[in-house]
Amino acid sequence: MLRYYPLMVIAVLISGLSLAPVVGFASAISAPALQLKSYDQLHKRVWHTEHGLPQISVVAITQDQQGYMWLATEGGLAQFDGNKFTVFNAANTALFTNPLLRSLFVTTAGDLLVGSSDKLILRRDQVFSELKLNGKSVGSVEAIVENSKAQVFIAAQQLLLWQDEQLSALPIPPRPVTSLLADGDKLWIGGPGYLAVWQPQLTPAEQYQLVYDQQQPGWLIKAMQVNQQGLLLATAQGLWQYHAKSGAVSLAEPHIQDEVLLLFKQQNTTWIATYHELFQFQNEQLVARFDISAAQGVPWLVSAFQSNRRLLMVW
Fold this sequence. Notes:
Elements: E1 9-13, E2 23-24, E3 36-38, E4 43-47, E5 58-63, E6 69-73, E7 76-80, E8 85-88, E9 101-106, E10 112-116, E11 120-124, E12 127-131, E13 143-146, E14 152-155, E15 159-163, E16 166-169, E17 179-183, E18 186-191, E19 194-198, E20 208-213, E21 221-226, E22 230-235, E23 238-243, E24 249-251, E25 262-266, E26 269-273, E27 277-282, E28 285-291, E29 305-306, E30 312-314
Parallel strand pairs: 3-28
Antiparallel strand pairs: 1-4, 1-30, 2-28, 5-6, 6-7, 7-8, 9-10, 10-11, 11-12, 13-14, 14-15, 15-16, 17-18, 18-19, 19-20, 21-22, 22-23, 23-24, 25-26, 26-27, 27-28, 29-30
């Protein structure tokens, strides 16, 4: 099971940062270390529990088609309208009796899917209901994605498919899934010690392919991102690169060998956070490093979402 860490909601205005490319994911050439900048250089506004958050562990963020921000915490769900938070938890919503949330996703149809530590919850027309598999709760939901065919995939105790109002299990090997990435017709599947791909356009015997199997204890894929070489893999043991042409996996960035808590892409900029630093990459070149270990009131950064407002990013 993934671990999550305390943080508050921070809106970061990212304009005005100076960019000076030094070293990228594809480069094995050592380069002088960038000067570590103060996190306070980023313009930010902070919301905490005294502002209405139900709890400070914000593990996922999304935005619905009406413009509301939704925040998954370990104390329930919060809706944010830009001024105030509306909280859904055990006090007012029976489905949140267990308030430990894991994931959030808004589908192209406008449904809000909420993954908790024991069930999958659907919010439609302002009503919450539980989506069950064969009449049973699906267990902890670690990730939710949707592909171009409006197929929604859910990483639970097994990999699930939500399509045409039906929840079903994909016929793939029963391995724990901790990360999903929809990439065109491909679905990338990450878990403890392995990377796989599912391609529904192929024959049933060829649809599921295990592309990397790492026997090293503790090697866990927490998030993935497509790049020029293949895939970036955020793991508990640093940032790794899956090379699509060779099938090899190697350490992507020598500066990042600690546990990766956040991997987030915003247009041509990628943000990566560990316990102590926030890294900014521009077109796969490392351009800035921010010291967050000394930042006041900012324990860790583990979730991010780019708002419809072009320059506003919420952590």
